[in-house]
């Protein structure tokens, strides 16, 4: 087979179709965009039909719909289930974008837009690779698509959908492109993901905002108290102080850590790319270990008191923070959320009251690298990149991977083509045209090798 | 003399005129309200003319204008300079107001509106007391008014105006009603005020917002760092840790502290009024000492990262806080701002950069209680309340009192009629009609006694 000819002939259309998708501001976290999220679903359902999918359906859920579509060639061939998400992160702070987040522009062979990489650009590679295989009569596997619109807010309705559609979703492997490679000349495949526990905390002091002159010094200031509580969650070595937090953490062997250390990484490049005075993290671990195999605690947002123009001398009644913890095998989000809640409540001084509200969670996973599916993916990358991809543990979270395993009993291959520098979740998110086209080129080889290796099994 | 008859006959009009003034949202901190601030100035200038003031002038400054007006009866009589401010604090958070902040309502004999007490209600007492004395031909002193529109943002242009108008502002005493009494049956006169140093800090980590999965644990999170830095500004006894912060603090004698302790105060009432689980503050000092004779450090506002709906897994590039320190004799705002800036920059880890931007400051003052003016005020309160007022050190700041002393060499009498429970700077600010009318009744007695005591000197 040779996907490149069809790719060459159609790449401009592929790109312009992706730009149309990126123009739809499908921000799932903000109800103001709900119609746009639905428009994105309609757009993708139509593109699936155009590519040749059967039984395409926009399945309603309690939240945003899940798009299903399939192409069954014969019961003897293996079945691949492709997952992707058509919702995107909020784009704010808008003022930091060089061009509007939902008016995609191409600069230096990169597509700039919210969702360009995460995950619209990556999921659309699969639809175009599917079209390519259909047009070339080279689809060697049964193929099923499941595209959701709530990944960025915790996939709250996906597990219900999966439980209710186990037969329809039966497959031999799940393929997801929502991760990255080390560099365009250093291909890699993600072999593990961190889980997540996400909470929102509220600290209440006095029952109303107070004048800081008349009351300052005599009542607990909830902002100061919140800062003290947050500060106490790390010790001087940046270990997390929540009792039992590390109890179930799977420590890597010296061999595994040595293997990880072989991945190309230059701390000076890392620092200068982010203009950091210094890196920072848990004592005893390298930067690459800190953001992949170690659990973390980060404040993702904080607010309280007067944040407007000028100066207001007020003691706020309440202070708030959003806090997320990234988890590693064998921590569980339920366990960690419970331990956080218990500890955070316990350390609150008598002078305030505290509320901890759990948001979504997700479980960490390690995907097997000895499976046929992983090997097929590895060969496909080698075919198109000319190099064997390195297995890499990623720091991100795709909670549904663990859920698919537990609910459907199916392993996942994380066949991502993004780069850490794509600024996903940040202003000026982008996706390389090289990466977009390379994905469309690589995916058909995965199906080819996977079908062959499955049969010869 | 007997002001009550005229007061009885005109109080309804006095109140409705104040309500008209309160309907003007003269928020000086927010440029969006600049026309309203100017409208408030016009309104008051006209009311001064109506009351009988001569040479009323709306004097332009680099910011909001200062209203001057006078009534000179003869050069032999003592001259009183009345100061007040017609700007108000921002009203947010709006959602916590039971009625709109700029649509005053009267409930249970209290006027609810932003500025009802601070300072529109209190300054308007002086204009109506002036009208009363004019109508009854009982003005025994020369009278000068100076009303500014930038008190809530630091009176940035007042000192320039004072320097340029020293002759016009010459007086024997300055009277300000911008403070309170202990209770309506426990009259008091403020004999001291805290100063203030107000800064805004900015902590920058990475040069852009980052995905907390891909980077979490490996880069300094500016929100976590800001929390750690703020937490470190107090030790376990709630002493402020800034080097040299207490160097110049004037400690009160045991006698003075014993005298203070005589003022009626019930900590249980205090806690239940604010629904506090416990009071909180510097070890070794009582609640009343903590909020009056001790310096403090409070975060007045904090913000950073994602604060919208739902969950966003981001590491923010920047985090911000507004921090104010209340000062006591003999600290100076310049000294403390410098010490804060030096310390806060010094404790910043290498992984972030820090900016400290000073806002306005003000100096602490202690007003003499043995002066003719204070004695005259004390007798006036005793006349109308039936009790001798207690001298009280207040925790609030009126920076211009120290400036008047240094620029004009004139002492101030702080003849305030508000209550701590008036919720100034908070949602649902209000001012008692009792207090408004009692002020208008008391002020003429002050002029009477002050004129008599000055002559018999």
UniProtKB/TrEMBL annotation, chains A, B:
The keyword Ubl conjugation does not apply. Its EC number is 3.5.1.18. InterPro entries: Bact_exopeptidase_dim_dom, Cyt/Met_Dipeptidase, Peptidase_M20, Peptidase_M20_dimer. One of its GO terms (molecular function) is succinyl-diaminopimelate desuccinylase activity. GO terms for biological process: proteolysis. Pfam families: M20_dimer (PF07687), Peptidase_M20 (PF01546). The keyword Hydrolase applies. Keywords: Hydrolase, Metal-binding, Protease. Residues 194-350 form the Peptidase M20 dimerisation domain. This is Succinyl-diaminopimelate desuccinylase. The lineage of its organism: Bacteria, Pseudomonadati, Bacteroidota, Cytophagia, Cytophagales. The gene is dapE.
């Amino acid at each position: 087979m040779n996907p490149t000819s069809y790719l060459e002939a159609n790449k401009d259309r592929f790109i312009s179709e992706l730009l149309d998708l990126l123009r739809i501001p499908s921000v799932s976290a903000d109800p103001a965009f709900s119609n746009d999220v639905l428009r994105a679903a309609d757009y993708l359902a139509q593109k699936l039909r155009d590519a040749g999918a059967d039984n395409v359906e926009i399945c309603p859920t309690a939240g945003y719909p899940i798009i299903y579509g399939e192409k069954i060639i014969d019961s003897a061939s293996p079945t691949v289930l492709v997952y992707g998400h058509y919702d995107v992160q909020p784009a704010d702070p808008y003022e930091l974008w060089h061009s509007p987040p939902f008016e995609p522009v191409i600069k230096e062979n990169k597509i700039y837009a919210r969702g360009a990489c995460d995950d619209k650009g990556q999921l659309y590679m699969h639809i175009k690779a599917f079209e390519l295989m259909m047009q070339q009569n080279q689809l060697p596997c049964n193929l099923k698509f499941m595209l959701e619109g709530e990944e960025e807010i915790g996939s709250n309705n996906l597990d219900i959908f999966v439980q209710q559609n186990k037969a329809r979703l039966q497959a031999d492997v799940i393929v997801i492109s929502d991760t990255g490679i080390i560099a365009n000349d250093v291909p890699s495949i993600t072999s593990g993901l961190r889980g997540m526990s996400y909470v929102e905390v509220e600290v209440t002091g006095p029952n109303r905002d107070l004048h800081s002159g008349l009351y300052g010094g005599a009542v607990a200031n909830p902002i100061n108290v919140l800062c003290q509580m947050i500060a106490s969650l790390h010790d001087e070595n940046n270990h997390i102080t929540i009792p039992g937090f590390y109890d179930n953490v799977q420590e890597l062997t010296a061999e595994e850590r040595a293997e990880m250390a072989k991945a190309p990484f230059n701390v000076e490049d890392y620092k200068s790319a982010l203009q950091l005075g210094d890196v920072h993290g848990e004592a005893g671990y390298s930067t690459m270990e800190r953001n992949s195999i170690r659990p973390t605690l980060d404040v993702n947002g904080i607010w309280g008191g007067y944040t407007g123009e000028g100066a207001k001398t007020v003691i706020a009644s309440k202070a708030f923070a959003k806090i997320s913890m990234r988890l590693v095998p064998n921590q569980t989000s339920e366990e960690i959320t419970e331990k956080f809640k218990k500890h955070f409540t316990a350390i609150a001084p008598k002078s305030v009251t505290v509320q901890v509200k759990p948001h979504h969670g997700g479980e960490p996973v390690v995907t097997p690298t000895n499976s046929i599916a992983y090997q097929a993916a590895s060969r496909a990358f080698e075919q198109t990149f000319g190099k064997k991809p390195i297995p890499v543990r990623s720091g991100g979270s795709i909670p549904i991977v663990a859920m698919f395993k537990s609910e459907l009993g199916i392993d996942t291959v994380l066949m991502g083509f993004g780069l850490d520098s794509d600024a996903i979740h940040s202003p000026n998110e982008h996706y390389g045209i090289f990466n977009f086209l390379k994905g469309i080129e690589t995916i058909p080889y995965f199906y080819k090798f996977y079908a062959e290796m499955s049969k010869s099994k």
